[in-house]
Amino acid sequence: MASKNNAPVKSSAATSGSTQDKAWLLSVYQEMCYYRRFEERVLQAYTQQKFAGFCHVHIGQEALCVGVQRALRPTDYMISGYRSHTQSIAKGIPGKEVFSELYGKVTGCSKGNGGSMHMFSKEHRFLGGHGIVGGQVPLAAGVGFAINYEKRDDIIVCYIGDAATNQGQFHEALNMAATWKLPCLFVIENNRYGMGTDIKRTTSIDHLWKRALAFDMDHGEVDGMNVQTTHAFLEGVVAGIRKTKRPYLLDAICYRYKGHSVSDPGLYRSKEEMAEWMAKDPIIQLGDFIKKSKMATDAELKALDTKAKEMARADEDFAEEQDIPPDSQVWQNVYAD
Amino acid sequence: MSILTYREALGRAMTEEMVRDPKVFLMGEEVAQYNGAYKVSKGMLDRFGPERVIDSPISEGGFAGLGVGAAMVGLRPIIEMMTWNFGIQAFDQIINHAAKMLYMSSGQFNVPIVFRGPNGAAHMLAAQHSQTIEGMLTQVPGLKVVTSCNPADGYGLLKSSIRDNNPVIFLESEMMYAMKGEVPDDEHLIPLGVGSIKRAGQHVTLIAWAKMVSRAMDCAEQLAAEGVECEVIDPRCLRPLDEEMIFNSVRKTHRIVIIEEAYQAASVGSYIAEQVQRFCFDELDAPVMRVANEFVPMPYAESLEHLVMPEVERIIPVIKQVLYMR
User: What ipTM did this prediction achieve?
Assistant: First the structure.
């Protein structure tokens, strides 16, 4: 998909197919509202000290999460870093299990052994939630290797933060993926800050898709704040990987509205910058499109959001009522039989 | 029985397991076309083809992680580290990922993988090529750590390691690859966690593993001439550790010397010493003594290297000390 001059293929304003369909748009709108409301409840619960540990929320990055997920098949794999509450829900893990995991409850998707950073589901092929920046990238290459080894046509999506592209293992994994044609979609969630450090202060290149040039890897850039263009673009990318087995590096431009973690007030970002990105809010953007296209009224969208709030509340209520793990669990699953 | 070298025994183990289970593959630097830096995988590319015997780039962290990811979705990789000194590059994948995956996911994703390669000093390879890593990795819950001291043990233990459903650190030695020994012709598996008595004796227990077993055997041979019967025991697996075998030997001899090619502080040997004093306190007729590397990076010059390693002339006085011999 890379053009001759190595510039990336960019998502354009033109969208097609499902991204113009009313039912699709409304369900995407509701899903994004749900993730927003879910993370807001997570944030609130954390602030109220209902659980502890590290907690990284995804608010602002919903469009990318949904736009990618809806281009996948259930049999495709996904692996991510430590900001993966809503990605894991998108991949199929029920929100109540994700909230339970945050609460350290036995009904959590990792039964309370993982917490915020380590969501797992074998059933839904979500291979974690990983806490070592960049460490999940070789794992994704391994899954791609296994897919080819067993001659299947699944793919694996590997989410990476922008700053993980400076980690050695990222480069090692991309080299292997490109050399051996592993069906991996590496998605850089480029929110432009590695914790509190502006990527520009630590990185010699101006666009992170350029990392792909070193490996002669297909690459592209999307406006990750726009779910329609993101999804339309991803459908092509995913079909391409499935067909050619060539891995792909996607530079997805997005923004997190909250700090790196809950404890981070985000003082390194200006009010102007925040305002500029809030104006591109993925949910507002889509809502405006839906209203302008006369597919739904303001009141109807509000009803979808209300429903999303109720879903998030139900997830938290469920988590609160569940049991903590039994003490015996501490000794289980250190070794497999 | 056939006489095989240690490298041939390991190669046979891998080959048999790859024939048995199509999910097993071998990846590492120079394992395929070059037939292995130490020729352990000789002939395997021809036999299994490039899909299953794969030359990796020089990216230890990367290909170790690739193995972990492949293992998470059902393959059974054997990852060769050309030496464990290079394998240190992969410690993030081994410690943070392979070892933790089953626990973090509460049993959903196990990682059946073997990381294997030579460990410890060879001969005049200097500081960056002469390290032992068993002390570091037995510290990590979720890993199994396996050593062997002869071709038969290497064969039987590597086969069990490949069949194990956990990440296994399999430690070899450059100095042992050419060692010859009898290996059973029939398939034989040695369970992980079961030690081996290499020489029975009444007077003192010598515990050693990997190439230190042959040092212990040399000491036993020399001391036999002086009427001392040493019992040489090899735990083989350092995690899980066959503590019962160690305690039983100490209950018999009442004295123990721990010989290891590692540093004394926070090592496998220090753990064994602690266990012995705790569980065999009343049995001991002498303090638990230890011989290990001097606490310096490995020097290059042969004479200096010799001073660092636990050599026979440094071990024997310690054995005599626990026997109160002059």
Answer: 0.96
